[in-house]
């Protein structure tokens, strides 16, 4: 399919280019020492991870350990409540082991670490979701796992800290600066630069320097490949629209990858939080400008000095001041439409899906559900496939405390 002069039949073989660029976005913006480490990972990824043995092993693990394929569920009562002419469906990443899509790329990254002969995986975590997924993968493969986390986040995310420790990870408290995600990223990169011969850095989304945006997308594309086949099996046709929430952008790139070459409208949903003022949302693709942070060039939210701006969302997994370079590329191309959903609409959708379907979604995923419901109201007929990136168990206490039972 040709869209805006880009032939999507050959898209995956042409993007990114050999330097890791999707059009003008992507690249490797880090110091020389880490460049050598990234080059090692790039070389390994494009050789080892494409081998039949690696692919077969990952496929077996996805079935036996992760519980894949996750199902596609027809949201029949929700569809009826919206008038019954549009049918809504959900791809159930909430049923992936550990309750979200993140394990899809963590298992791939940790398997690559094993094939490369590394002893340890390193990462930062904010809310702790990436840390838990990576600690799970490390336990499965018998790798050491060091997770860097800001002191402030450690206090806020006690259950996830406990999970990581039970799984055998070392949680390293970072007390510099504001002691949150940014400082944790810096500390983790420093530790990696000191010891990259023995370990591998595992990024938690389709962000960071090349090859991570591509590698994480490829490991997540299992979501889109499964969903497309399942949907066609169930209904005999493709969905008219596909919807996913976008933080760094991994669950969305995963499902979008299955549909980029199809005549399907694709929507990425960013968090509008409390409103449109800088600091009240994390909708980088809707309101941001081009810039470099965390080792890659993309579209980002900046403060007056050009540094990453403070961001906010009710969903801690979505409050990141940028998104992956491929999203910036698809945004400029117009192949994916990026829109916003605010906190209120999200909490409404959280309760609606729970009550009508018996599925408590993660607050991140509830952004996509809210958008799918809104979209259905603008269509006369057809079907919408929503990526349900995770389950809401982690969010229940927060929702009850701040919004009460509805
Ligand atoms: C981390 C997370 C997200 C956001 O990350 P992406 O990389 O944008 O997918 C979304 N949903 C859930 C459940 C998460 O844990």
3D structure, described in words:
The chain has two domains: 22-62 and 102-212, Rossmann fold; 68-100 and 221-403, Rossmann fold. Helices cover 45% and strands 19% of the residues. The protein contains 16 helices and 16 strands. It has helices at residues 11-14, 32-47, 52-66, 76-81, 102-115, 129-141, 151-156, 158-166, 181-194, 212-235, 250-257, 284-287, 325-333, 343-357, 363-378, 396-403, and strands spanning 2-3, 6-7, 21-22, 25-26, 72-75, 86-92, 120-125, 144-150, 170-174, 199-201, 241-245, 265-273, 289-293, 296-300, 336-342, 382-388. The strands form five sheets. Strands 5-6-16-11-12-15 form a six-stranded mixed beta sheet, sandwiched between helices. A four-stranded parallel beta sheet has the order 9-8-7-10, sandwiched between helices. Strands 1-2 form a two-stranded antiparallel ribbon. Strand 7 (120-125), helix 6 and strand 8 form a beta-alpha-beta unit. Bound molecules: pyridoxal-5'-phosphate (PLP).
